[in-house]
Amino acid sequence: MAEKPDKKQQLTENSTTIPRYPVEELAANAEDLFAVRPEVLVGALYGNGQAELTIDEVKRLIDQFLKRKVN
Q1: 11, 12, 36, 51 from 18: Cα distances, Å
Q2: Interaxial angle between packed helices 38-45 and 55-67, expressed in degrees from 0 to 180 and rounded to the nearest 10
Q3: Pfam families recorded for this chain (predicted)?
Q4: Cα 24 from Cα 34, distance rounded (Å)
Q5: Cα–Cα distance measured from residue 36 to residue 32, given in angstroms and rounded to the nearest whole number
Q6: Is residue 48 part of a domain?
Q7: Is residue 28 part of a domain?
């Protein structure tokens, strides 16, 4: 009987097909990629700690950042 690949292995295999970009490169192209200034991208990624992210991850983080309530 063939073994099922575990979820960690599947995630590793899937993550190699989606390109990841350094935060510096994403910030340099923030206006073209996300229609926000680089400062907004930096705020959205504050505390994230990842050195490389996918475009979709950054879009989700920017969207969450812009929808946060201000105290």
Answers
A1: 11, 11, 22, 15
A2: 90
A3: YqzN_YkzM
A4: 14
A5: 8
A6: yes
A7: yes
Is 29 within the bounds of a domain? yes
Report residue 33: phi and psi, to 5°. -80, -40
Task: Render pLDDT for 51-70 as a digit per residue (tens, 0 to 9).
Answer: 999 999 999 999 999 999 98
Q: Minimal CA–CA distance to 33: which of 56, 16, 52? A: 56
The whole domain housing 26 covers 19-67
Rounded CA-CA distance 66/3 in Å is 44
Q: Give the pair of three-digit tokens for residue 27.
A: 């910030």
| pLDDT tens per residue, range 8-55 | 545 555 555 899 999 999 999 999 999 999 999 999 999 999 999 999
Look up residue 5 and give its DSSP letter. Answer: P
